[in-house]
Amino acid sequence: MCQPFEPERIVSTYAVGDIQGCFDTLMALLTQVHFKPETDTLWCAGDLINRGPKNVETLQYLMALPNLKVALGNHDLHFLALAKGIKTPTPSDTIGDLLTHPDREQFVAWLQKQPLLICDDVNQRLMVHAGLPDIWSLDQVKHLAHEIEQQLRGASVDAFLNNMYGDTPAIWSDTLTTPDRLRLATNFFTRLRFYKSTGELELTHKTETAPEGFTPWFNTRHASLADYTLIFGHWAALGGVRQERLIGLDTGAVWGRHLTALRLEDGVYFTQPAASE
Fold first, then answer.
1. Which end of the chain is more exposed for a tag (fewer CB within 10 A), N or C?
2. Domain around 168
3. Are the CB atoms for 46 and 73 separated by under 8 Å?
């Protein structure tokens, strides 16, 4: 007897912008795209938590996904510093639910294992939370991300997190000593918005208006990344970026706007209005 024909479902990869603890909005977005956790893959552009209300639910869901890739953001790293007692919460932090949860150390251990960078060389796609300076080649990007990841996973993690805070140095040099090199590299990966092609970043401006002498970091890139699609989050003021080989996915869900996902296989975008959480 002939078996009924069932069309094979296409396996999809969805890249999503800054979640920041907006769990209900994330669930609505994944429902909208008919996300199948057992087969589909989710790429997250960092800032999984903080500023939003449901950080525990967000991490618990993501940690259980079998096909997940994360590029850590500044809020994720900040939580690690808070959980380890290196920093104290600021008035704008909303991660008390994580800090007081019985599974806090599991959240910490899981985040420490996540990368700074998602790189798909086959399809020439790269995801980072904030940005990349044009003086870094692809090989150097990978090397520096790996160096920071090793710090997060190693015995010196507390020293790294304590050293991580600060806006100086602001100009990259290959001769920087280890503490300064790691701080500046982390700032590029997780905090960069405006940039000069001398390897200098500017960290005080967060709107779409560039300070004098600076431009958005993505206006220039290293030649080795010319054919890569760069995917990033972090910059909600832009309202998203859709250019050739450039995708900005932070559309301000935590500020009451939208959470955005991009299906990488066909370039289709999906937006979900922020839920009342």
1. N
2. 13-273
3. yes
